[in-house]
Amino acid sequence: MSHYPTYWTVPLPQSREFSSHKNTHQKAMSTNPHQRTQPNNTEWFLILALLLFLFAQAILSATHTSITLDEPLHITSGYACLLTGDYRLVEEHPPLLKMFQALPLLFLAPQLPDPRTVPGWEEDNLITVAQHVVVPYRPIEPLVMAARVPTMLVGVLLGTLVYRWAVDLLGRRAGMLALTLYAFDPNILAHAGVAATDLGAACALFGASYLFWRWLRLPTRRRMLTAAVGLGLALGVKSTALLLLPVFGLLIFLSIFSLPVFVLTSRPPNRPPRHYLRHAVAALGIALFVLWAIYRFEVRPLPELPFQFPIPAASHLLPLLKLRMHMREGHAAFLMGRNYHHGVWYYFPVAFILKTPPLTLALLLLTVVGLLLRHLSSLGWRDELAILTLPVLYFALSLTSGINIGYRHLLPVLPFIFVWVSRLALYATARLTRSTLLVALSAYATVTLTIFPWYLTYFNFIAGGPQGGYRYLVDSNLDWGQTWKALRRYLDEQGITEFGLSQYTINDPHAYGLDYTPLPPWPDAPPVLPRRFDPAPGVYAISTTTLQGVVVAEPEMFDYFRRRQPEARVGNAMFIYRVEAHPRASWVAQCTNPVIPLPPEAIAEGFGQDDVRRADFDCRQSWLYPPGDGWYVLPYDAPDTLPPAAQHITPARLSFAQTRRGDLPPFRIYEWFGQSSPRPPSPRTVYAAPGDWPPAQAETQGLSLTPPIAVGTTLEFLGVVVEQGTPAAETGLSIQTWWRVIRPPTHPLSLMAHLLGADGQPAAVGDGLGVPVEQWQPGDIIVQHHPLVAPPGDYWLQVGAYTWPDVVRLPIVVERTEVGDRLLVGGIEVRP
User: Topology of 686-830 in CATH?
Assistant: First the structure.
């Protein structure tokens, strides 16, 4: 068959802007496949170079990266299926690709243990079996590399299919653009070098779609057979390949019936509906036979099902059942500062925007806008639907996913995008346009090469690049356990022999020579980091996944480190912190309103000190400055909602925050280390006088004093701060009185603040004390806030202290002589 039927292409009406590209487009859309699919020598060289580059980058990066979290599971599952013919360990993924990855391990020396002889086999526990088959193997590098090479070959195959489909649709120029986008995509490269199922899933879905499209275009028996085999293989690679069935069914339906909404032309001659239906039924039967062959023609009952009778390929239902359970139970995830366990609809859109290269995003946007404005020609409804239906459906279903693990679940969408946007190559006819495209592709490739070998950590400029991506996404988006080799090199270069390591994985760091102190969430580590509010001095290596609270007992366990710049970033995914020793703290001061943040046992455990002074106060009305170094602990919202707290905590450094309610209410911890003593208000003249003197008499006959002034034997008055306006009224004052404790009192006290008129009568009263006297120690500085509301006018401020509840004022003492029982400050104005 030398010609494709001409009815497949139904271009949209052309705008004036498009008319200049008409000849180029028609040439690319030629109905003679041989005229547009045979590359010349230069193009052959470029194609092979791109595919070789892809393979070389994958294999070179694989030599730099350690075994990732999921690899031992996939390797063990595939090895067990190959060796035993028993599929009990298939878990959530069908076995075909995993068996392909495990195939080289059959020739490994020394051989891997027989999975049937290790713990976990009888219980169908893949993790336990992997920990006895793959994880302890030494040296582990040859095993990992042998299992990764098949994935690299799958990556090359997928690149070939991307080029082939783009060429078949649009010509060689489009094929080169699609292949270039594919070969330099950092997300493709990241997963082409690991023994996982994600790139294989992309290849299976894309390859099956391409073969089906070829049959749909020209429904011959041979093409039906290849499409059926492709579908069967895809079903054996990934459970999501089931999406192919409704997509293919829809496209067959639309090919049989002409629907006005698509502005279709007639069906091809000699292709009646029964021809499609007959081929479709045969293809489905062949695909299921291929799938059954993957399971070695297994026929058995499945205990997990309510009915118990033998069914073909029963083990293929296990991944579906386990995936459904996983979806229902959810999975720990992190997105833009938020930890959660069940999926959110916007996870994958955000991941797509942050981890897709800007050039791909730009080409995708240009294609969409160009088609909507009809500046670009349509491929025809069948071709457009064949390319778009599966990725659009796949992406739409991702919005409902309860498993928000990583961008890798979007890999199947990328090959379709590369082919779909490759039509833009047809319009790069002018020299300026071609130059712009070449510069963009060069920048695209350069950015990818600059992050070698850490392709997994790629984030675009929107996220701040690989250095900033951890603020938005972790887990397999960034940190999959691939940095242990690099960590070992860094530690050797720095001469570090003792360090703590936090990583979530079933793998063993000792395989890479890492002798570490386990930190959460290692099984042999405490569930919560000891001294998490003030970690012990030393070196800490913390993966970005656990740093952001994924799969740890307390999501904000490592918040102390999140608020510090790491000393180094190994592979962009493992952060190194060095905690230096500091002077021993002498106090923990807590704001107890609305609740006490930390009980005594939490203070002892979190700070690692059981003898530290605990001082409680109400930060709505008071502030306490104990002498020496220590920590302030505030309810999480206090600095934002309580002006006294916001004002006084400013010099301190936020060192830890828990934003969610768990065993403890939300709170913040601030360090007060090496801070100078708080500076009292600027001195202003005050008058000491008896309580029955009016202000005018006190000003002329009282004793003029400058703080500090002794008040009884308990306090020193340090000064006063007057601020216009209060939250309570427009005509008011916010008064701060500052005091230093000389010795703790023997009775409860209250601190006095009255606005007096000229006649000495109080116009406003704001007495109070937010620091219980039982907490006082010599040297403490207490700042009491007194909100006062009064009519506009001029007033005197009367301050002092009195015992409670008998209301006996403490005397004002100068040189051991009592000179009054209150202090008066003049010049207080309340403005409207």
Answer: Coagulation Factor XIII; Chain A, domain 1 (2.70.50)
